[in-house]
UniProtKB/TrEMBL annotation, chains A, B:
Residues 4-117 form the Response regulatory domain. Residues 118-221 bind DNA. This is Two-component system, OmpR family, response regulator BaeR. GO terms for cellular component: cytosol; protein-DNA complex. The modification 4-aspartylphosphate is found at residue 53. CDD domains: trans_reg_C. SUPFAM superfamilies: C-terminal effector domain of the bipartite response regulators, CheY-like. Keywords: DNA-binding, Phosphoprotein, Transcription, Transcription regulation, Two-component regulatory system. GO terms for biological process: regulation of DNA-templated transcription. It comes from the Bacteria. Residues 118-221 form the OmpR/PhoB-type domain.
DNA sequence: ACTTGACTTTTACGGCTTTTTACCATGCTA
DNA sequence: TAGCATGGTAAAAAGCCGTAAAAGTCAAGT
């Protein structure tokens, strides 16, 4: 079963070059010439990696990247025309996994693709299990996005920050409501329940939020 | 209290990149540009993890690693420029905890750092006969986990805090129920009994909770 | 301003676990 | 051996959790 690389590149000659080399290297390929349908295609064909040109007709590469990150953690390699771009991009947290600068040799592209795939393979079953982007309130579990409400996200953050450590309901409430609001502690249970439901929609067989009878809750990865 | 990551990297741009991402991820950072002062720094600032470039001016990364291992078990992640290096390194027993190959995405580095830290945290000692982790309500006896209820855990903690010292039932109740609840003192006996049963499931031949006729109970390791 | 819809909090209850109690058997000390 | 302390057991009581549904809150859009 071949892995599919999605090539998003408006310059036809370049796209073909990528395609040929990647196929030669044993990958399946798909091509798009503009940014309009990228997200739709990603959802459909679930590529193993996306090679994304930064300058595209129709839509900016950065926007596409952000959009994809809303629902998927698929590896993305950005292709840019200018070296100076890269430094700028590196500073930004917008979620690409690597950057290639034109002009480049097709061999280099293949090498990078392999490198990124290898990395993401080794990381998959490890720390990438749960990723919490505090700035964006974006939680991903095994590469899939968890659509959490603000309170749910916070709750998960607090628990996941100290895996294994048990927090009681008062501690959790104190951290979530720092305005000293008084809420019934069963409220926590309620949010926990919703969190668990959303999490189990992604990983039905793995429990990550455990209750400790008479004490509280804890987060613990498999 | 943040954990400190010590970055040892001669390429300034790369070091800054690491630093920014790790700080973003909630770590404190320190940087060194060559290998000469690494061991001294490790002794001083006791970092939680070291990110160590293999190729350094002044001293070889491997040597540094070995040197550190003589006095510390701090987690070390080696950074190397070439994939082939890794295979070679993996064969050698020199004590790094993980390897990262250039080029890499800063996100990956953060992920690896977290993964290694998590692993080393869970590997923490099972050398002591009885270990009580108050934070996670986790009691281990000779490396085996005792599945205790909240009260049982407290009871064992109180007794084990003063080995050999005899505590009567009132003292024990006072410490367990600081809300001045009045309970029958036979309740203690009941919990003691359950504790003993769970403990003897792990170490059938060793009695650690002793009753002192007419006085109370004490904990005493073999 | 009103409606609407999404999110949060409260409340109630069944089922389950732990804690407590009661009671009898056994063991210790004088 | 008498008298009290402790151990074992089981059943009652208390407390806790998961769940669902009702009630409240808030902000966006009309």
């Amino acid at each position: 079963m071949k892995q599919t690389i999605l090539i998003v590149e408006d310059e036809q000659r370049l796209a073909n070059l990528h395609r040929d080399y990647l196929q030669q290297a044993g990958f399946a390929t798909e091509c798009l010439e503009d940014g309009l349908l990228v997200t739709a295609r990603v959802r459909e064909s679930l590529p193993a990696l996306i090679l994304l040109d930064l300058m595209l007709p129709g839509k900016d590469g950065l926007d596409i990247c952000k959009e994809i990150r809303k629902f998927s953690a698929v590896p993305i390699i950005m292709v840019t025309a200018r070296v100076e771009e890269i430094d700028r991009l590196l500073g930004l947290e917008f979620g690409a996994d690597d950057y290639i600068c034109k002009p480049f040799s097709p061999r280099e592209v293949v090498a990078r693709v392999k490198a990124v795939l290898r990395r993401s393979a080794t990381l998959q079953d490890d720390s990438t299990f749960l990723h919490l982007d505090e700035e964006r309130y974006l939680a991903t579990l095994q590469g899939q996005v968890l659509d959490l409400s603000a309170v749910e996200f916070q709750l998960l953050s607090i628990l996941a920050a100290k895996p294994g450590r048990i927090l009681n309901r008062d501690q959790l409430m104190d951290r979530i409501y720092n305005d000293r609001r008084i809420v019934c502690d069963r409220t926590i249970d309620s949010h926990i329940k919703k969190l668990r439901r959303k999490i189990s929609a992604v990983t039905p067989d793995i429990e990550v939020i455990h209750s400790v009878y008479g004490v509280g809750y804890k987060y613990e990865a498999p």
